[in-house]
Amino acid sequence: MEPVRLLHTSDVHLGGGFPTPDGGAHRDDCLCPLLALEATVATDRPDVVIVAGDLFDHQRVDDDLVDEVLHRLAVLHPVCVLLNGNHDLHDGRSLYGAAGRPGLVFLDGSAGSLAALDDAPVAVWGRAMDDHHRGFRPLVGVPERPDDDRWWVVVGHGHHEPDLAGGHRSSPIAPDDIAATAADYVALGHWHVRTDVSVGDVTAWYSGAPHGYGASGSFNRVGLDAGGAAVAPVDAVLPAEGCRR
Ligand SMILES: [Mn+2]
Ligand SMILES: [Zn+2]
C-alpha cells in the first residue's frame, strides 16, 4: 500500500474561549486553534486530517461560527474526517447538520459509519455519540478490517479505562476494544493530554488538545507505511497573548 500521512487532532473546543498559560484569553469566537491547524496542514501536507471529537465546545455555538469552521475544514485539502464528541453531541441539537459537504467526511452513524476515502487509500470508521453515558462504547461494533488495499483507521471519542469492571466514567474505551479494532491507527479524543494507549500491534493515541493543558498544545502526526505507524507531535502554535483577530 502507498504510505499515507495523517494529521490527528481533537478537543479543539471552538466556541468556548479559553485562557492562555500566561494569563491571556482566547475569546468565544476564537479560531486560533483552527488557524494553527491550517498552518500545520500547509507545512506538513498530510493526506488526511482527522478531528476526533469536541471540535465545538457546546451546542449553542453561533451558526455563523459553525459554518465558517466547517467551510474552512472543507477547503483544507486534504479531506477532513470528523467525529463528534460529548461537547458537540450528534443528537436533535447537533451542530453537524451542515457537515455534509465536499471535503468533509462526517461519521454520523450512532451505530458507526464506515467510509472509504476517495483521495487516499484509507478506510475509516467511527461511531457518532448521541448521548454521553456509561453504556456508550465508542469502539464497540467496529466492523472487520476491510478486505482491500487500504489503511484501516478507527476514530473514537471517550475515556480510556484499563479496568472496565471497576470504572464508572461515561463513554469508556477498554484496551481490549482498542486491540479488537485490528486497526493500523486508532485516533482518539476526549483527553486533553497527548497520550499513547497502544495495545500490542494496534497503535492508538489521544492527540491532546491543540490549546494544550497547562502547556503548549500539539497535533499528532502519523505516518503509515510498511514499517507500521510512526507517531510524532507537531506543535500547535497559538498566540501566547491570546486572540489576535
Ligand atoms: Mn470530550
Ligand atoms: Zn484565540
Which strand order does the major sheet show? 6-5-4-1-15-16
Q: What is the chain-wise order of helices and strands?
A: EEEHEHEEEEEEEHEEEEE
Mean pLDDT: 94
The CATH class is Alpha Beta
**Structural class of the helices, strands and pairings?**
alpha/beta
End-to-end distance, in Å?
42 Å
Indicate the overall shape.
Answer: globular
Main sheet characteristics: 6 strands, mixed
Give the name of the CATH superfamily. Answer: Metallo-dependent phosphatases
Number of domains: 1
According to CATH, what is the topology? Purple Acid Phosphatase, chain A, domain 2
Share of helical residues: 10-25%
3D architecture notes:
The chain is of the alpha/beta class. It has one domain: Purple Acid Phosphatase, chain A, domain 2, CATH 3.60.21. 13% of the residues lie in helices and 28% in strands. It is built from three helices and 16 strands. It has helices at residues 32-44, 63-74, 175-181, and strands spanning 4-9, 18-19, 25-26, 48-52, 79-83, 104-106, 113-116, 122-126, 151-157, 159-160, 172-173, 185-189, 195-196, 204-206, 218-225, 228-235. The strands form four sheets. Strands 6-5-4-1-15-16 form a six-stranded mixed beta sheet, covered by helices on one side. It has a six-stranded mixed beta sheet with strand order 7-8-9-12-14-13, with no helix packed on it. A hairpin with a 2-residue loop joins strand 15 and strand 16 (228-235). The longest helix is centred in the first third of the chain and has 13 residues, at 32-44. The chain is globular. The N and C termini lie far apart (42 Å). The structure holds manganese (II) ion (MN) and zinc ion.
